[in-house]
Amino acid sequence: MTQPRRISQHDKITAEIRELIVSGRWLPGHQLPVETDLAQLYGVSRMTMNKALTRLAREGFLIRRKKRGTFVAQPRAQSAVMEIADIEAEVGSMGQDYRFVLLSRKVIAMSEFEAADVGCGAVRGQSALRVEGLHSADGQPFCHETRLVNPDQAPGVLEQDFSATPPGTWLLRQVPWSEASHRIRALNADADIAASLALNDGDACLEIVRRTRTAEGWVTWARLVYPGDSHQLHAAFAPRDQSDQG
Question: Which keywords annotate this record (predicted)?
């Protein structure tokens, strides 16, 4: 007769804490007691408690921040790789309250570096509106945005102050585009991004650089940086024809 598998202490603790999160008794953002206090509460060694918390963090239920503590993770937002998503809609899809804070807005003459990054016929010295802002979900930093907009291809943009409506939302509603591209990469937060997103220097982030254009020229270039533990990308694919299946 096969003996039932003995459940380890760290398995029991993992299951109990997971249930506290899934049931909603511990909400996203809830800070757990320090590891030593949890170990004492559950009557186990600190090593056993660390093993349980590490497993839950790996599963996506917890976020462990150096020198700050352990927190219940926010639900991960998803962006479609081949779509231009409205960040407000992304936050709303998670059932969270959205807010946009305008950090800066000014008309600039693009540098050689900026023109090269924009591409699509952009040239050094060309006039552009530069906007920087922070998107939040339930009061927590969600995405840092830096955006350049071509006034020649976005009529009325210079009259928008973007203190209420984010530039991405306004552009999706007002300005048609015919072509878009995404460049996606992982990066480590520098001091400025870390401060904006309430991260530690060097924390993992997800960067999406988006360009849109029309037949007449570029419309906008946007750099969107998300905390790496709160965002993921997804895409759906279909075979081009039946011969591709299998």
Answer: DNA-binding, Transcription, Transcription regulation
Q: Could you tell me what percent of the chain has a pLDDT over 90? A: 42
**77, 63 in Cβ contact below 8 A?**
no
Residue from 98, 16, 99, 103 nearest 56 by CA: 16
What residues are paired with 213 via a beta bridge? 179, 218
Within a domain: 169: yes
What sign has the CA pseudo-torsion 136, 218, 209, 130? negative
* Residue 241 resides in a domain: no
Q: Structure pTM?
A: 0.65
Kind and range of the H or E element at 112?
A: helix 112-118
Average pLDDT over residues 165-172: 90
Tell me whether residue 56 is in a domain.
Answer: yes
Average pLDDT over residues 54-74: 82
Residue whose pair of structure tokens reads 């750099």 in the numeric block? 223
- 50 with 110, same domain: the answer is no
Cβ–Cβ < 8 Å for 219, 213:
yes
Confidence of residue 162 (pLDDT cuts 50, 70, 90): very high
Question: Taken in order 179, 146, 60, 28, is the CA torsion positive or negative?
Answer: negative
Amino acid at 74: Q
With contact defined as beta carbons under 8 Å apart, do 48 and 10 qualify? yes
For the residues 126-148, what does the mean pLDDT come to? 94
pLDDT tens-digit readout, 15-26? 889 888 877 788
Q: Is residue 98 part of a domain?
A: yes
